[in-house]
Specification:
This is ABC transporter permease subunit. By secondary structure, this protein is an all-alpha fold. The protein has 16 helices and no strands.
Length: 320
């Protein structure tokens, strides 16, 4: 009996040592992967998670000379100031309209672009087009807005010169508030559609070519192939990106909006980011600026949770 117990103990010890050896060897083999992950991990920890501690100043009258610990607490006074601000309705309206235009016009643009590129049979032509449409992503918004000014300026802009040569009157694209939203969305589409199409092209790369071959044998047209093979392959990717996009519904790009904003179109161009910069940062009111940021984040979180819940209700795979 004792011999059997000793044998079982020896076997247990041997199996545990083998398991530890395998675990350590697996960890050693994974070191290159951990090294690759480390920069991204450090980025999110240093620039995303640690700064979240600064949200505490939304509940303070923050003074840089007193710091986080000694600044006086104000409770929810900053949130009350925001919710009773007479400009809140205008800011919400402008932000939601611009976000809605982005969702309706800009969000489908990379999908359509990816589908069109996937239909190109000549690889050299497809790669050339991809390279060209990726390039605007690497331009700063300063350059993009300057290009817009050169094209749409009232006095010497290329578009207005063309209109005048054709017998039409010059149009004030940059100073008329009616054209602001169109210019904003078109700039987004031109700059980011090519780059945003990468993820959809990656999803299409995983589609089995035999599905298209079988569809051709069955007599399906190109449109039928796109409808029944390409679009279903993109469905899960589109749903996930759409849900994540809702989390940024009030984040419209501070630099972009600020550069094309002017006193004439301020009524339709003023959004939370530019409002915070003008009424918070420039005036040194950091607590109020943080309060607006918290407000935006809460709305984005609620929208993501609702959209993810609705996705699950309709039987689709959500973000979590």
């Amino acid at each position: 009996m004792r011999m059997e117990i000793k044998e079982e103990a020896v076997e247990s010890t041997a199996s545990s040592s083998v398991a530890r050896s395998r675990s350590s060897s697996a960890w050693i083999r994974g070191i290159p992967i951990y090294v690759m992950i480390l920069p991204g991990f450090l980025y999110f920890v240093i620039f995303r998670y640690i700064p979240m501690g600064g949200l505490v100043i939304a509940f303070q009258e923050y003074d840089p000379f007193l710091g986080f610990l000694n600044s006086p607490w104000t409770g929810l006074d900053n949130f009350h100031r925001l919710l009773t601000d007479p400009d809140l309705g205008m800011l919400l309206r402008n932000s939601l309209i611009l976000s809605g235009l982005n969702l309706i016009l800009f969000f489908p643009a990379p999908i359509l672009l990816a589908i069109m590129l996937s239909e190109v049979s000549r690889s050299w032509f497809r790669k050339s087009v991809q390279t060209i449409i990726y390039m605007p992503h690497f331009l700063s918004w300063v350059i993009v807005v300057n290009i817009t000014v050169v094209l749409f300026a009232t006095q010497d802009g290329g578009i207005n010169n063309l209109l005048e040569s054709l017998g039409f009157q010059r149009i004030e694209f940059l100073t008329d508030s009616h054209y602001f939203r169109a210019l904003y969305v078109l700039q987004n589409i031109w700059k980011e559609s090519g780059w945003s199409a990468i993820i959809f092209l990656a999803a299409l790369a995983g589609v089995n070519p035999m599905l298209y071959e079988a569809a051709v044998v069955d007599g399906a047209s190109r449109w039928r192939q796109v409808w029944h093979i390409t679009l279903p392959a993109l469905k899960s990717t589109v749903i996930i990106l759409f849900i994540l996009r809702l989390g940024q519904v009030l984040d419209l790009g501070f630099e972009h909006i600020l550069l094309i904003q002017n006193p004439v179109n301020l009524g339709v161009a003023d959004v939370f980011d530019t409002y915070v910069y003008r009424n918070g940062v420039l005036q040194g009111n950091f607590s109020y600026s943080t309060t607006v940021g918290v407000f935006k984040s809460v709305i984005g979180l609620v929208l993501i949770m609702l959209a993810n819940r609705l996705t699950k209700v309709f039987g689709q795979e959500g973000v979590y």
